[in-house]
Amino acid sequence: MKKKIIILGGGISGIYLGYQLKKAGFSITILEANNRIGGRIYTKKTHDTKVELGATWLWRYNEELLKVCKDLNISLFEQNMHGDALFEATNTDMPQRFQVPKNQEISYRIVGGTLTLLERMTKYFSKDELQLNQKVLQINDDKTSIEVITEKSAFTAAIVISTIPPQLLVNSVSFSSKLDANLIQIANNTHTWMKDAIKFAIVYKTPFWKEKGFSGVGFSNVGPFTEMYEHTNFENNRFAFMGFLHGPLANESKETREEKIRKQLFKFFGEDGINYLSYEEKVWNKEEFTSFENDKFINPHFNNGHSVYQQEFLKGKFIIAGSETSPSYGGYMEGAIYRGNQIVEQLINKF
Questions:
Q1: What element of type H or E holds 12?
Q2: Fewer CB within 10 Å: C terminus or N terminus of the chain?
């Protein structure tokens, strides 16, 4: 009889775990609280253009992730860095033009958008195996099984694997049996991947910057964007910028952020910069199913891959996964895959 496993979260960690565990012969159910899959992978379509407002790049040293891409027949392309970049040092100085050093590590993007990675895996799931809008409220365990209570239903399994970010997990889900105190303490001091990011994208009708010899790369000491990159698609027929906004702008309105971006784009590129089709953004610390909202600052990647996450809990019936728990590349897509492979091997050996 196939062992039943419930996976909490339909981001890259949960989808990959479900995909691999199903292939290994386990019975799986993935419960996603949101109305979409992806978690911190968020490829948004606007004006017939796909922009990444979540995880975007991978690198040649991401061996586990590259293997998954190869297995799923997913193609990659280089992040364009050709042409001059612009750097804004102060509010009063005009941006300075410079050449990006040639020896930079090459970043790669996924043809069709990062979400393609998850869509290739989810096509193997039935409707029952991947369920959206299933916010987890409580986890109950007894001697032989473990139960997950959501806002809509109840599910029972032999094992539950959580891919919910650890800090959010221990502050949003109730447990009938008391969780390990050390786990709670570490989880509350574990940095959540993407939590501090505000990502934005600007869609244009034409790549006007190329005609002027620019790469679309921009950096600023004063904001509102701190860094920006060209975000043209692989086919080179949809054109955009994508980048990161200054963190404190999370407390401003979207309208205020966009107005500040417009002024900065005008300073960088003149009228061409503000003649865009669409402004898109994602403030990740406002996302209910990603971030536990509080004022506590945690350094990026702090406690990612901590040894406590390698343990099993609730007498072996509860496992904590997700990028933050990976001892290798914690807080990146590569970490999500690495940790997933650890758990799949662990469960195959266990059963």
A1: helix 12-23
A2: N
As for how many domains the chain has, the answer is 2
- If residue 117 lies in a helix (H) or strand (E), which one and from where to where? helix 115-122
pTM assigned to the model: 0.96
Amino acid at 147: E
Range of the domain at 77: 42-113+196-289
Q: What pLDDT score was predicted for residue 102?
A: 81
| Region for residue 304 given its phi and psi (left: phi exceeds 0; alpha: psi -120 to 50; beta: otherwise) | beta
Whether residue 274 sits in one domain with residue 202: yes
Instruction: Write out the two tokens for 278.
Output: 């669409």
For 185-229, write each residue's pLDDT tens digit: 999 999 999 999 999 999 999 999 999 999 999 999 998 999 999
Point out which residues pair with 147 in neighbouring strands: 140, 156
Closest residue by Cα to residue 168 from 304, 289, 313: 289
* C-beta separation of 332 from 11 below 8 A: no
Query: How far, in Å, CA of 194 to CA of 290, rounded?
Result: 9
**220 contacts: CB under 8 Å, gap ≥ 6:** 87, 88, 95, 226, 227, 264
Regions of the chain short of the pLDDT cut 70: 1
φ, ψ for residue 154, nearest 5 deg: -135, 145
For the chain, first and last CA: distance in Å? 11
Which position has the token pair 């900065």?
A: 264
The predicted pLDDT at position 103 comes to 77
Q: Which residue has the tokens 């027949």?
A: 73
